[in-house]
Design a protein that fits this description.
Number of strands of chain A: 2
Low-confidence stretches of chain B: 10-17
Number of strands of chain B: 2
Helix content of chain A: 55-70%
CATH superfamily of chain B: MetI-like
Shape of chain B: globular
Order of helices and strands of chain A: HHHEEHHHHHHHHH
Helix content of chain B: 55-70%
Oligomer: heterodimer
Strand content of chain A: under 5%
CATH class of chain B: Mainly Alpha
Largest sheet of chain A: 2 strands, antiparallel
CATH topology of chain B: MetI-like fold
Radius of gyration of chain B: 23 Å
Distance between the termini of chain A: 7 Å
Strand order of the largest sheet of chain A: 1-2
Low-confidence stretches of chain A: none
Number of domains of chain B: 1
Mean pLDDT of chain A: 83
Chain lengths: 343, 325
C-alpha cells in the first residue's frame, strides 16, 4: 500500500509540471498585463519598458517559466535597460512557495488567494454535506420503491436537474426566494455577499447568506449522485446476504442502512471523491451570481485583468487538489473494500 | 460546464427478468437499425426529446421569416427593460432590443456552436482514441498523459483562460452575407479542444477490446492494411458509444457556451446567443425583472434536456448487449 501511494505521488509530479507549463505559456500570452495594472494607464513608453523588464516580460517564455518555477534570485536582471544585468532578482519561485505578486494590487498572490480560499471551502464543504445526505435519501428512497410513481418522478426530475445550467437554478431561486418573497412580505433570503454589513459577520448571518448558494450547487449535483445511489442500492438489495438477513428476521431498517447501504456506499465514495472538479466549476458561477467572496469569483476577476500570478496560483491549487482527491479516493476505496489490493 | 455523465442505468437482476417476457423471446427478423429504432421508440422521453428538438430547430429557422437580424440587434434605449407585451412577447433587454427576436437568432448561434464544437470534439477524440487504443506503447502513454493534463483542471477554468487567451482581437467574419462576431469561432474551438479527452477515453476503451477479436485477426490474415483495420473494421464496430457521446457532446457544448458567455468571456455582442443574453441578468433581478433570464434560460434548459433524453434513448437503443426488441 505504501508503495502504491508513493508511486501515485511520483506519477503526479511530472503531470503537475506539464500542466503548469501548458497553463503558464497560455496565461503569459493572455492579454496585456500592463494595460490593466492597478487601474492606471501607462502613457509613457519608458514606463512600459521599465515595467516589462521589472516583471521579466521581455525574457523568452522558457526563462519566464523558469523564473516562475524556481525564482530568479540566483540570476541578475537588467532593470534599467542598458543591456547589463546588474540587479539581483528577488523572486523565490513557486517551488519555494513564492507565487509572485498580483499585478492588480501588488499583494503576494498566495495571500490574495488564501484570503478567499476559506470562503470557498466553507461553501463547498457545506454544499457537499447537503449533497451527500440529500442524494443518499433520494437514492435510497427511489431504490426501495423501484418503478413506483415516486421513483419515475425522481428519475424525470433528476434528468431535469442534470440538464439545468447552474445559473438558471441560481436565478430562479433568487427570483422566488429573494425577490418574490420580499414582494409578498415573507421572510426573504439574501442574494448578495456573505453577510449584511450593517449586522456584521456573525455566524447566523453567514449561514443565512449561504442557503441559496448551497441549494444552487446541490440541486445540480443531486441529480447525478442520487441516480448513482439508486443503482448501487438496487444492486446491493438483490444480493443473497440481504435475502438471508430478511429471512433471519433482521428489522428492515437495519437491513437497509447496515447490510445494504454499507456495501452500496463503496462506489458512492468514488463519486464523492471525483466530484471535486465539478464542485469547483460550479463554485465559479455560483460565487459570481451570489457575489460570494470566494476563489471562483477571484479567478474570474483576475482572468479578465490578465493577472497571471494569481490565476496561475489558483489553477495550480486546483490541479493539486484534484490529483490529491483522486489518490485519496483510491486509497479510501482500497481501505474500505478488502477485496481490492493495489500492487 | 463540467461534464458529468449520469450513471449508466445498470439493470438490477429484477429488471432483466422483467424485460424478457415470452413474446419478446420470439425475435422477428430485423435489421440492426430497425432493432435500434424499435428500442428507441420504446423510450418515451427520448421520443419526446426528438419532438421538442425538432420544434426548437424549427423555431430558430422559421423565426427568421418573421423577424430580421437587424431588428434583433436594433437597440432603442427608450424601450429598455420593457416587460413582455404583445409587441415584444418576451420583453426587451437592457438596451431595448427585442428578446423574442434575439432568442431566434441567438438559438441559431447556440445550435451552431453545439454542433460544430461537437464535431471538433469527436474528430480529435476519435483520432486520439483510435491511435492510442490501436497502437498502444509509447504513443499511448504520451497521448494518455495529454488527456490527463486536460482533465486535471476543471473544464470551466480552462475555458475561461482560453477564451481570454484567444478572444483578444478576432475580427468579425462574414458568412453567407451575415456578420458574425469572430468570438463564435473561438468558442467553438476551445470547447472542442477541451472536451475531447472524454471521447478519446471511450474510443480507446472500445479499440482495446475490439482489436482482440478474431475478425480483426482474420482481416489482418487476408492482408488488410493498418488503416483499413482501424477505419473499416474497428471504427464501425465502436460507432454506438461514439454516437451517444456525440449527442451528449452537443448538449454539453451548448451549456458550456452559455456558461462562458454568462461570465462575460464568451460570444461578444451584437451577435446573440442564448448564453450571452443572460449576461448581467442577475444585476436586474432585484427589480423583479424576470424576462431577461427566464426565456433564454428556459430555451437552454429545454434543448439540453431534450438532447440528454435523446442521448439516453440512443444509449439504450444502440446497446448491442440489450436483448429487448
Amino acid at each position: 500500500m505504501t508503495r502504491y501511494i508513493a508511486r501515485r505521488l511520483l506519477q503526479a509530479i511530472p503531470l503537475l509540471f506539464l500542466v503548469s507549463l501548458l497553463l503558464f505559456v497560455m496565461l503569459q500570452n493572455m492579454g496585456d498585463p500592463l494595460a490593466t495594472m492597478g487601474g492606471r494607464t501607462m502613457t509613457r513608453s519608458e514606463d512600459r519598458a521599465r515595467l516589462t523588464r521589472q516583471l521579466g516580460l521581455d525574457k523568452p517564455i522558457v526563462v519566464q517559466y523558469l523564473y516562475w518555477l524556481i525564482g530568479n534570485d540566483w540570476a541578475k536582471i537588467d532593470l534599467d535597460g542598458d543591456g547589463i544585468a546588474e540587479t539581483p532578482g528577488i523572486r523565490k519561485g513557486v517551488l519555494r512557495g513564492d507565487f509572485g505578486y498580483s499585478l492588480v494590487n501588488r499583494e503576494p498572490a498566495m495571500e490574495v488567494i488564501m484570503e478567499r480560499l476559506p470562503n470557498t471551502l466553507l461553501l463547498m464543504l457545506s454544499a457537499e454535506v447537503v449533497i451527500i445526505f440529500g442524494s443518499l435519501l433520494i437514492g435510497i428512497y427511489a431504490a426501495l420503491r423501484q418503478y413506483s410513481f415516486i421513483d419515475n418522478l425522481i428519475t424525470t426530475l433528476s434528468f431535469i436537474g442534470y440538464s439545468m445550467p447552474i445559473f438558471f437554478v441560481a436565478l430562479g431561486l433568487m427570483y422566488i426566494f429573494a425577490v418574490n418573497f420580499k414582494a409578498w412580505g415573507l421572510p426573504y433570503l439574501p442574494t448578495v455577499g456573505m453577510f449584511d454589513p450593517r449586522v456584521g459577520k456573525t455566524f447566523w448571518q453567514v449561514v443565512w447568506h449561504m442557503i441559496l448558494p448551497i441549494i444552487t450547487i446541490a440541486i445540480t449535483s443531486f441529480a447525478a449522485n442520487s441516480r448513482y445511489v439508486r443503482s448501487t442500492m438496487l444492486e446491493a438489495m438483490s444480493q443473497d446476504y440481504i435475502r438471508t438477513a430478511k429471512s433471519k428476521g433482521v428489522p428492515r431498517r437495519s437491513i437497509i442502512f447496515i447490510h445494504a447501504l454499507k456495501n452500496a456506499s463503496l462506489p458512492i465514495i468514488t463519486v464523492i471523491g471525483l466530484d471535486l472538479p465539478f464542485l469547483l466549476g460550479g463554485a465559479v458561477v455560483t460565487e459570481r451570481i451570489f457575489a460570494w467572496p470566494g476563489m471562483g469569483r477571484l479567478f474570474i476577476d483576475h482572468v479578465s485583468r490578465a493577472d497571471t500570478p494569481v490565476v496561475m496560483g489558483i489553477l495550480m491549487l486546483i490541479a493539486i487538489a484534484v490529483i490529491t482527491f483522486q489518490i485519496i479516493t483510491d486509497i479510501v476505496y482500497a481501505w474500505l473494500d478488502p477485496r481490492i489490493r493495489y500492487n | 460546464m463540467a461534464k458529468r455523465t449520469l450513471p449508466d442505468p445498470k439493470p438490477a437482476p429484477q429488471e432483466i427478468q422483467r424485460v424478457s417476457t415470452p413474446d419478446e423471446l420470439e425475435t422477428p427478423v430485423l435489421s440492426l437499425s430497425q432493432l435500434a429504432w424499435r428500442r428507441f421508440r420504446r423510450h418515451k422521453m427520448a421520443v419526446a426529446g426528438i419532438v421538442v428538438l425538432v420544434l426548437l430547430v424549427t423555431y430558430c429557422i422559421l423565426g427568421t421569416m418573421f423577424v430580421s437580424e437587424d431588428y434583433a440587434n436594433h437597440t432603442d434605449t427608450s424601450l429598455r427593460l420593457q416587460p413582455p407585451t404583445a409587441e415584444h412577447p418576451f420583453g426587451t433587454d437592457t438596451t431595448g432590443r427585442d428578446i423574442f427576436a434575439r432568442t431566434i437568432y441567438g438559438g441559431q448561434i447556440s445550435l451552431l456552436i453545439g454542433l460544430t464544437a461537437m464535431i471538433v470534439e469527436i474528430f480529435v477524440g476519435v483520432v486520439i482514441g483510435a491511435l492510442t487504443g490501436y497502437f498502444g506503447g509509447w504513443l499511448d502513454s504520451l497521448l494518455m498523459r495529454m488527456t490527463e493534463v486536460v482533465l486535471i483542471v476543471p473544464q470551466i477554468f480552462l475555458l475561461l483562460v482560453m477564451a481570454k487567451f484567444f478572444g483578444g482581437a478576432v475580427p468579425n467574419i462574414n458568412i453567407l452575407g451575415r456578420e458574425f462576431s469572430g468570438s463564435v469561432i473561438v468558442i467553438i474551438l476551445i470547447i472542442g479542444l477541451t472536451a475531447w479527452p472524454y471521447t478519446a477515453r471511450i474510443v480507446r476503451a472500445q479499440f482495446l477490446s475490439i482489436k482482440e477479436n478474431e475478425f480483426i485477426l482474420a482481416a489482418r490474415a487476408t492482408g488488410a492494411g493498418t488503416w483499413d483495420i482501424i477505419f473499416r473494421h474497428i471504427l464501425p464496430n465502436s460507432i454506438a458509444p461514439i454516437v451517444v457521446a456525440a449527442t451528449l457532446g452537443i448538449a454539453n457544448a451548448i451549456t458550456l457556451e452559455a456558461y462562458i458567455s454568462f461570465l462575460g468571456l464568451g460570444v461578444r455582442p451584437p451577435t446573440a446567443t442564448w448564453g450571452n443574453m443572460l449576461e448581467g441578468a442577475y444585476n436586474y433581478i432585484d427589480q423583479g425583472i424576470y424576462w431577461l433570464w427566464l426565456f433564454p434560460g428556459l430555451l437552454i434548459l429545454l434543448i439540453v434536456l431534450s438532447i440528454n433524453f435523446v442521448g439516453d434513448g440512443l444509449r439504450d437503443a444502440l446497446d448491442p448487449r440489450s436483448r429487448a426488441v
